[in-house]
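User: Please write out a complete single-protein record containing the residue sequence and its fold in token form, without commentary.

AI:
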Amino acid sequence: MTLDLPRRTGSGRGLTAVIDFGPDSAGWTGIRGVEDLLAVAGGYIDFAKIYAMNALLVPGKPLSRIVAAYAEANVATFSGGILFEWAHRQGEVEALAPLLKGLGIRGLEISENYIRLDPADRDRWIGWFRDRDFDVIYEFGRKTPDEPLDLDRLGGIVSAVRAAGAHHVIVEQSEIDLVARSDAGILDRLARAPWFDDILIEADPLCFPAQHADLIRRFGANVSLANIAPGQALRLEGLRRGIGRGVDYAMFAEEDVPA
């Protein structure tokens, strides 16, 4: 006889992207911290975003070791979009390629949190990095949006950036927060969009586990989530499987509980 974990409900497998802040109260991810994280939860993590400007802020030698540890555990790393936006503002986007390759980072996020990209320029940069063997993730949304997201516009962008070579699209946390406050019905329609499987939804690490449990209830256990703090990765997988008060131990809902 074997005792198995509760299974995720639904079809497919939702992706989990952690955000590696470096040594931080949200999860100590120096070299040994990452090794411990991966030993315990590596099987439940698909991506690790190197936070904001950390590809420049963290010394190269330890960061390279951290990236190598992720790679050994089959977790893909990518640099945060703020680094791309800063490079774009400085007119030094092409300098990202040798910087990231030197660190072993083979992915990057292209975003428009604070800058504006012409669609042709956006797609050109996606293609430019793709042609240099980078995996590109595009992030949709502003850090301070002033109106709820338009699903038709988002769908058009998902289609365009995927055609240009982006692997996935992340929807900025602030966009989700604004919609949840102003018109939660948009989130219901988002779940039915034909391109929903191409996106990851950012959650707020400061709102764990309540917001994450709500996203799972709304979108299903296999919703792809980003911005997960390292210390939350294991518990998030538990929530996906119906484990924890946040989801009212839904693992018991599908079967009879032994007497």
Residues 151-164 form the longest helix (14 residues). The radius of gyration is 18 Å. The chain is about 40% helix and 15% strand. The chain has a mean pLDDT of 93.
